[in-house]
Amino acid sequence: MSTYQAPIRDMQFILNEIADLEGVCSLPGNEDCSVDLVESILEEAAKFASGVLDPINAAGDRQGAVCREGVVTTSPGFKEAYQSFIETGWHTMSCSTEYGGQGLPTLVTTAVQEMWKSSNMAFSLCQMLTIGAIEAIAHHASDELKQKYLYKMVEGVWSGTMNLTEPAAGSDLAAICTKAVPAADGTYRITGTKIFITWGENDVAENIIHLVLARLPDAPAGLKGISLFIAPKFLVNDDGSLGARNDLICSSIEHKLGIHGSPTAVMSFGDNEGAIGFLVGEVNKGLGYMFTMMNHARVNVGLEGVGISERSYQHALAYARDRVQGSPIGDKSGIKKPILHHPDVRRMLMDMKSRTEAMRTLAYYAAAEIDRAHRHPDEVQRAIHQARVELLTPVVKGWSTEQSVELTSTGIQIHGGVGFVEETGAAQYYRDARITTIYEGTTGIQANDLIGRKLAREKVPGAQMHKLLAEMTVTAEELAGLPQLAGISRNLTTGIAALSNASEWLLAHYHTEPQAAAAGAVPYLKLTGIVVGGWLMAKSAALSVKHLEAGSTDSYYQAKLVTAIYFADHQLPQAGGLAAAITAGSASVLALPEALF
Prior knowledge:
Elements: H1 8-18, H2 21-25, H3 35-53, H4 57-62, E1 66-68, E2 71-73, H5 78-87, H6 106-119, H7 121-140, H8 143-155, E3 158-163, E4 179-182, E5 188-198, E6 207-214, E7 227-232, E8 234-236, E9 242-245, E10 248-253, E11 264-269, E12 275-280, H9 286-322, H10 343-375, H11 379-415, H12 426-434, H13 443-456, H14 463-480, H15 486-509, H16 514-519, H17 521-549, H18 555-570, H19 574-584, H20 586-590
Parallel strand pairs: 3-6
Antiparallel strand pairs: 1-2, 4-5, 5-11, 5-12, 6-7, 7-12, 8-9, 10-11
Helix pairs in contact: 1-10, 3-6, 6-7, 6-9, 6-10, 7-8, 7-9, 9-10, 9-11, 9-12, 10-11, 10-17, 10-18, 11-12, 11-13, 11-17, 13-17, 14-15, 14-17, 15-17, 15-18, 15-19, 17-18, 17-19
């Protein structure tokens, strides 16, 4: 079994030279953050990830969380690791200083959270959902509710959840039927069942603060009739102490393909007198409030794709260095060598390395845009950066997670037959990755959001994509005159043209042939990810050449250059095929009569 080592050098390069960490630290409210401080944070986070979280990851997979009569016992070592996690302040990094958090930039916390997701994705989900719940409460709840719940949640002593899905209401949230009946004391009595609730019950936190979507008796039908409520596991007294147990229970936890260490609960509300709930914001506006939490979660699930791909790559690389089998093709020495010498294994490792680095760069770039959207001193600039965040969010989530399934599968392939055997550990990453394309909005949902709200239904249809295409074109033109980068420039130019053509086709057909447009939505999301990833890798290559020509002897820059060239040679050429599938392939998607399936 390999040991996770955080890719700090690549993280630092992307943070400093692509995402402009120094500029992010100079934004209003970020003045206490510095490049030197971030370097120290990364080093300490890497120690925690490799020394505390990674060692309990495999055990958490083998012996997942267990539920007996509504009581969940987490995997071995998780409770102790969580206590250490909150005591050392890792939980508070991204939270507002107003409620006891550290208020660090999203860019910084993104890099740190990647380490948690690489070293132990199941463990990291508890923090992810809690931070999302904090965001929703902080933005939409009353001051009284904020004061009562946020300090303990920020500290990590209390965890948080998001309760949307029901047995008859999956992606179609309009079908939610959980009820909330007003009580005389101004609270509500909630009854209903929610499924797939991540860390819905656990033994690591003193209290669990459930955010629950439900309907009032007189609520209008559909999405417009959904309200949001806080339903704590234990009611909270006026002095902040814990009171009576609320009428809610974990009736079971799911037996899943992966992330066994994360207790995914079936939550039953109101089996007796009704779970006491507290309204967040206004009635019938709950779905919009919950999207504050969901958008946060979507970016972070995309980061899971990065983290699990990195971990799978490291595991496969360690095996390829150690496993001696056969002589490489063309080697006449007769000496058997590690499989790292075999061309196809090299191809697979380069595929894992280049695509993971492209995903990482996109995630960090998007994180920096979030910081600028929140903190730039100019209102117009904030709006510009927010528009870029909205465009890229479904790509970060959908493209990165889809790639993680492919790359963790490649990790198994590099191991050969033993990769299919659980003891080698490669299969866990594949199984853990598989959920990422499903929860917090499937890839299809992300893709429909991209071609709909982010492209065709914009105030000025296609405006943000056109702006991004123009920026990428400038980069391609700048690289064309540099001999080492001319190949990247050609492939990037071809990819940009493919994305542009597909975008124009979707803009022309979205309203008149909506099913044809939707048939190409996922290919369009993948196309966008490949081209934007290729653009950022091209910028990375240009920066590496600049350092090398200035006399740098840092081998990292040579590796980055080769990795970027590989991405341009092997990933960007796929853009043309994806564009063809979008613009000419919709008819065959929809042509087969139902009876012939």
